[in-house]
Amino acid sequence: MPARPDHIDPRITRSRSSVLDAVLAELAEKGYGALTIDGVARRAGVARSTIYRLWSDRAALVADAIDVLNQQPAPRTAGEESPRERIATLVHHLSDAMRNSPVAACLPALIDGAERDPTLRRLHHHYNDRRRTALVTAIADAVEAGDVRSDIDPQLAAVAVAGAVVYRRLMTSRPLCDDEVEPLIDTVLGW
Length: 191
Hints:
The chain has 191 residues and is mainly α. It has 9 helices and no strands. Helix 8 (154-171) packs antiparallel against helix 9.
C-alpha cells in the first residue's frame, strides 16, 4: 500500500529535528566557518546522505535551523489584538528568544558567516526581513489607528525596537528582560 502524500515518516521527522539541533550546537561552538556537514551528521547521529536529502547545502541547513526553531507568534484574527498588543507580543517574543533560544547563542557566528558567505547572507537577510515585516506592519497599523504619532516611520521604529533587543544580547551581559519590553516600546513609539 503506497504512503499517503500527507503522511510523513516519523523517522524523517526525528532525523530532521536531531539535525537542526546539531546545527545550532555546532554553530554556537565552532562558528559558521568551521561548521561541516560531517560534524553535524556525527553530532545528530545521522548519515551525511540524510542531510543532503533534506537540504541543498550548508547555508540552507543553517537558515532552516534558525527559521524552524525561532518562529514568530502568528498574528491573531483582526479585532482580537490591538496594534500595541501585537507590537508587545512580537517584541516580547524577540526578547525571550534572545534570552532562551538556542538561536541566540548562534548570532555572532551567523553575523560573521553572513559577512563571508553570499548564500548565507542572502538567506539571513531574507529571514530577518520576514521577521521585521511583522513588526513593521504592527507599527504601521498603530500609526494608521492613530495610536502613535503620524510622523513615526514604521521601518525605522522597528529597527530601533528590535535593534535595542539584539544589541542588549550581543553587546552587553544583560539581555533585555520582560519587564523592560513595554518601557522600550513606549520610549521608541512615544506611548
